[in-house]
Amino acid sequence: MSKATCGTKQISGDLAWWQLSLIGIGCTIGIGFFLGSSLGIKHAGTSIILSFLIGATGTYIVYSRLAKMTIQDPQEGSFCYYAGKAFGKWAEFSCGWNYWCSNILIMGSQLTALGLLSQFWFPDVPLWIFSAGYALLALFVVMLGTKGFDKMEDLFAIIKVAAILMFIVIALGIFFGWIKGDVGGGSSPGNFPNTMKEWLPMRLKGLWSSLIYAFYAYGGIEVIGLMAMQLKKKEDTLKAGTIMMFLLMVLYVGSLSLAVSLAAFDKFTEKESPFVTALTNYDLAFFPHVFNGAIIIAGFSTMTAALFGVTTLLVTLAKDGDAPKLFQKKLNFKELPLPSLLLGMGGLTASVICAFLLPGKVFEYITTAAGLLLLYNWLFILLSSFKLVEKGRIVSVLGLLLLLLAISGTIVEKTIRNGFFISILFVALIAIVALIMHRKWKNGGGKKLKYS
User: Fold this and answer.
1) Chain centroid offset of residue 256 CA
2) Where are the beta strands (DSSP E) in 255-392?
3) How many CB atoms are closer than 10 A to CB 257?
4) Three-class secondary structure assignment of 8-55
5) Contacts with 294 (C-beta within 8 Å, 6 or more apart), sequence order
6) Which of 156, 250, 259, 417 has the most CB atoms within 10 Å of its CB?
7) CA 391 to CA 165: how far, in whole Å?
8) pLDDT value for 380
9) Which of 361, 339, 341 lies closest to 112, judged by CA?
């Protein structure tokens, strides 16, 4: 699902903890896993399994800290509110805009991924044409309104989980000899490397640089923190997240373990899902097409939902005095704030331009930058917990170290280093604006914060 918004559907009534867990799974699984994991395998090989275990550990620590703050002081603003409460208005402002920017890059990553997946059938069509087509289609769906689209979100979540389970069942069939084929490379299905060199084909640097893609695949826990406000019992927030993370880890690690055991790591590419690559040498003509189609449908739904989300988020920022008042004005079409929508479309347009100028690297760069901005918000969550939650600070330190490990991994690998610089550019722009706004806040301008 969208790492940022999980759609626009507002859940009414009392929500049980297990319902929040299932919603979290549907919101989290997305293009970052179905296609982004190929980037991780390309860098780490079989050790991508370890990357996803490390990612699960770090993600759970972040969620547990957010859950503690939610239970202690439930607020609709969630992590941005807690950042402001811990460090002041500049932190809330920076957190909100970093979140918006990460959403924009996540949409760009999804848009590029949809183009790459579509090239599976039409390899001669330029990437930017697919990207532009999906962007216009998303705008059309958004302009039609949200009522009909919201009803389809649960179905799209089921499609994503079903796709993973379909792969697992087929891969197990190969493992047990029910499905025959040529694995290639002289290996047997289900067998893992026996030497350290085979486990770490790109050495520790490969494992290090792959961490960002593992964390990116788990992105979405901050949204569940927001949705925790709908729980019948706020104290169940941690339980819901624990079950969610365990099930996600099982799905992710289980499916990737099977994938890397069925194909050599150098066969995986960001241009197709690792699960399609893993079954290339088997007589399963239907699978690549069914799987690819299912992921395109689910991926398009999350991108469109994300466009709804960034549109709403910008209106909220404007109401809080953290964005120009223009975006708060009711220049509506079918209940959509047009200024906010147009700015979101501007972000998608930039992705189309990047796809035109850098068709070979745009997905890797945007995905890396999107994952980094996501982790910067997670840093805000952990740092806020140091000031707002008395217990568990040692765990928070471990979480910080794991996040910094993933962030620094993008610096050591030159092929994804540009993604790091893109994320720093966004952070620098937000910091400059925050410094300018600080004078306004100091003079009493802007909306006053009400922290208990």
Assistant:
1) 17
2) 332-333, 336-337
3) 18
4) CCCCCCCECHHHHHHHHHHHHCCHHHHCHHHHHHHHHHHHHHHHHHHH
5) 159, 160, 162, 163
6) 259
7) 38
8) 92
9) 361
Question: What pLDDT was estimated at residue 147?
Answer: 56
pTM given for the model: 0.86
156 C-beta neighbours (distance < 10 Å), count: 21
Token pair for residue 438? 């600080």
Nearest to 342 by CA among 369, 297, 307: 307
Q: What is the mean pLDDT of the chain?
A: 81
Distance CA 257, CA 47 (A): 9
Separation CA 26–CA 119 (nearest Å) = 26
User: What are 111's two structure tokens?
Assistant: 């848009």
Q: What is the pLDDT of residues 364-421, one digit of tens each?
A: 888 899 999 999 999 999 999 999 988 888 999 999 999 999 999 999 888 889 999 9
Q: Is 284 helix (H, G, I), strand (E, B) or coil?
A: coil
Tokens of 107: 């949409």
Distance CA 35, CA 49 (A): 15
Distance of alpha carbon 324 from the chain centroid = 27
Which two three-digit tokens encode residue 325? 């008042």
Residue among 439, 451, 355, 364 at smallest CA distance from 39: 364
pLDDT digits (tens, 9 = 90+) for 366-375: 889 999 999 9
DSSP 385-428: HHHH--S-HHHHHHHHHHHHHHHHHHHH-TTTHHHHHHHHHHHH
Q: Which residue has the higher pLDDT, 16 or 406?
A: 406
Which residues are registered as beta bridge partners of 160?
A: none
